[in-house]
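[Protein data]
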Amino acid sequence: MAFQNKNLSVIAYANGFTLWHYVESATLATITASGYFDAVATLMNNGDIVIINGSDKTSIKKIAVSDAGVVTTATLD
């Protein structure tokens, strides 16, 4: 499925950091694919965290936004 803005929520925001929550009936692999969150690239910052509830599992990922506006997710260190 395509990204749905209505399924993205801010849980907390402080000092330029945002904790997000996203729920979708797509699989985690689909949701964490590079570019899935590009529609909201201007809202997200490098180092933000997103809790993702997919159809197959839940995961916590770190956000990275490129200068070109491509959003990727990565496993937390």
Notes: The chain has a mean pLDDT of 96. The domain at 6-75 is CATH 2.40.240 (Ribosomal Protein L25; Chain P).
